[in-house]
Amino acid sequence: MEKMKWTFGILLLLGVHMYFIKADNAGLYPPSEELNDEQGGGDDDVCDCPRTKRLVCGTDGVTYFNLCSLICASDKDPSIAMKYLGRCSIMG
User: Fold this and answer.
1) What global pTM score does this model have?
2) Hey, which residues does 85 pair with through a beta bridge?
């Protein structure tokens, strides 16, 4: 019985860990993909942003991968600024 408790506990911890790994990227573009125009990507960009994940919410309601990505987007649209650190809220 004790062995079953340990096995269940370990499986539960692994499951929770995997959930948060998967949920962390929900709604975001993975770092290996190119950013779209709205997120600061595009052929005419000169920004070479690091792939360091530090989510930033823009005033346009878009969650950017990091501040550099937001700055690239604001170069195209000066009305975009940082609203707060972290993922943009779904509720607005």
Assistant:
1) 0.51
2) 56
Instruction: Sheet containing 56-58: give its strands across.
Output: 63-64, 56-58, 82-85
What gap in Å lies between CA 81 and CA 89, rounded to an integer?
A: 16
DSSP lists the bridge partners of residue 63 as 57
CB-based contact 83:66 (threshold 8 Å): no
**What pLDDT, on the 0 to 100 scale, is given for residue 33?**
46
> In the structure encoding, which two tokens stand for residue 15, read together?
């499951």
Contact criterion met (CB below 8 Å) for 73 and 80: yes
**Nearest Cα to Cα of residue 54 among 44, 69, 65:** 65
Mean pLDDT in each 10-residue stretch from start to end of the chain (92 residues)? Answer: 77 64 50 51 67 93 94 93 92 62
Question: Which residues lie below 8 Å from residue 32, measured CB to CB, with a gap of 6+?
Answer: none
Count of positions (residues) in the chain: 92
